[in-house]
Amino acid sequence: MSVKKRLIGASLLAVAVTALLVYRFPGEDESDQTALRVSGTIEVTEARLSFKIPGHLAERAFDEGESIAPGQMVARLDNRDQLLAVEAAETELALARAVVAELEAGSRPEEITMAQAELELARAAAESAEIRLRQSEADFRRHKALVTEGGVSRQAFEDYRARYQTARQNREEAGARVKVAAARLDLRRAGTRSEQID
User: Fold this and answer.
1) Which of 41, 55, 82, 191 could form an SS bridge with 106, CB 3.0 to 4.6 Å?
2) Which domain holds residue 144?
3) Within-domain flag for 70
4) Residue 177 sits in the same domain as residue 116
5) Pick from 105, 127, 146: which residue ends a domain?
6) Domain count across the chain
7) Residue 75 — φ and ψ, nearest 5°?
C-alpha cells in the first residue's frame, strides 16, 4: 500500500470521528460557558440528625431512598423520660399547692396548744438545770476550800469542778431551749405571713 492511500484513509477516519463527535455531543450555547449538564444519581450514605432533646430513636418515618419534604417528620424519639419528667413536675405542683393551702389555713389550735406545752417543758427543764447548777456550785466551792486545807484530794476537787462546769453549760442550753420554744409559740400564734404564701 502506498503512502498516499494511507494518508487518504487516515484523513477519512479523522473526518468520520469528528463528525461522529459533533453529532453525538452537540455544541453548548456560547453564552453559557460554565454550564455542565450531566445525569446520574447522588446517593447519601450518611446523614447527621440533631434533636432538641436527647433520647433513643423510637421510629423512623421514611425508608432508604424516599424523598423527604421540608418540615416533614423524619424520626420520633422515645418519650418515656419526658413523660416521667411531666409526672414528677405534676407531683411537685400538687405538693406545692398542698403547702400553700396549709399556709393559708394558718396554725390549728392543737398546734398552738402543743407549742405552749413545749414551752412549759422547756421552762421546767431550765428550772431543774438552775437547781442543779446551784447545787454543783456549792459543792465546788466547798471542795475548793477543802483542797487548799488538804481535806480532799486534788482528783475529787477536779471532779466537782467538771460537774460545776457541766451544770453551767446545761443551764445555758436549757435557757436557749426556752427561747426557741417561746419563739415557736409566737410563730404559731401569729400564723402565716403573706410572703410565705407568695
Assistant:
1) 191
2) 108-197
3) yes
4) yes
5) 105
6) 2
7) -155, 165
**Span 51-63, pLDDT tens digits:** 777 778 788 888 8
Percent of the chain with pLDDT over 70: 78
Domain-terminating residue out of 75, 105, 135: 105
Q: Are residues 162 and 193 in the same domain?
A: yes
Give the DSSP letter string of the chain: --HHHHHHHHHHHHHHHHHHHHHHSPPPPTT-SS-----------------SS---EEEE-S-TT----TT---EEE--HHHHHHHHHHHHHHHHHHHHHHHHHH---HHHHHHHHHHHHHHHHHHHHHHHHHHHHHHHHHHHHHHHHHTSS-HHHHHHHHHHHHHHHHHHHHHHHHHHHHHHHHHHHHH---HHHH-
Instruction: Select, from the ranges 14-23, 33-42, 107-116, 144-153, the one with the highest average predicted confidence (pLDDT).
Output: 144-153
| 178 plus 98 within the same structural domain | no
